[in-house]
Amino acid sequence: MTILSIETSCDETAVAVTRNGREVLSDEIISQVDIHALYGGVVPELASRNHAAHIGRLADAAIERACITKQDVEAVAVTYAPGLIGALLVGVNFAKGLAMALGVPLIPVHHIRGHIAANYIAFPELEPPFLCAIVSGGNSIIADVRGYTEVSIIGRTRDDAAGECFDKAARVMGLGYPGGSALDKIAQAGDETRYSLPRPVIEGFPYDMSFSGLKTSVVNIMHNAGQKGEDVDTASLAASLSAAVSDVIVPRVMMAAEVFGHSKIAIAGGVAANSRIRADILKAAEAGGYTLYIPPLRLCGDNASMIGCQGYYEYLAGNIAGMDLNAYASMGADVSFCRI
Prior knowledge:
Layout: E1 2-7, E2 12-19, E3 23-31, H1 33-37, H2 44-65, E4 75-81, H3 85-102, E5 106-110, H4 111-122, E6 130-135, E7 140-147, E8 150-156, H5 162-172, H6 180-187, H7 212-228, H8 234-259, E9 264-268, H9 275-288, E10 291-293, H10 297-300, H11 305-316
Parallel strand pairs: 1-4, 4-5, 6-9, 9-10
Antiparallel strand pairs: 1-2, 2-3, 6-7, 7-8
Helix pairs in contact: 2-3, 4-11, 5-7, 6-8, 8-9
């Protein structure tokens, strides 16, 4: 089944053509990083306007790159939740118009389920059940993936996501936006023991996470040093933060895998590109005898191929939307699509 898929949940405009949930024929992305870097973060209105400006020609480019015609498209999949509501609406409305014009099914895809599905593209042999940690700029979740469309949330962040923590800490450290990759790069030369940062624990909820205090600790270190006229070892602060975030995520993932009886662990999302987290979870998985799946960096960030992949399995499960499909800024990944 050939699916054209659309992803516009934040600041990447992405369109892909996939086949049968595993094969990527084309994957086109236009990043808005340079635009939002001027403001130190994503400006929702600018994101929506840029999606609207580029999505049409990007869809044409994806079809051309896939060496197919519009008549070969058998379904249209689109991210409908969660994300920036204006940005999502651009993608949803474009997808509805395209599906109607082509006379093909419209498939709604949850963004988090899409990130999980990035592993199906990278690892054709991977099948549920498995445990998956989805860590990104907007989400930090530990999920029990029981089936392709059956996802149960085991743990989640109670405040900031890990990627948000990295980006905001990087901004106050003068590393620009988005700061996650820059912070990861300079952390390689730092001493992670130089600065003492908290490892939050939420009493009674062993799998839940918190990153707001970590972000605040970095902000306080930078502000206090500035008030005293002292220098900050930014490389060591970056290394200390990376170690702290990893210490929040990795032990909870490993504990969940053991308690819920999984032998396979996957990670997904933009923060899955962080070298410290990748190294720590690889080491922990090897020590525990788990099979670990980490997608390549190109599939960690937002992309449309992961939406097309998950869209295939949503279609098989009968999750088809009508022209009344709406977008939702927030929605749990464990909520199955239903027509209201």
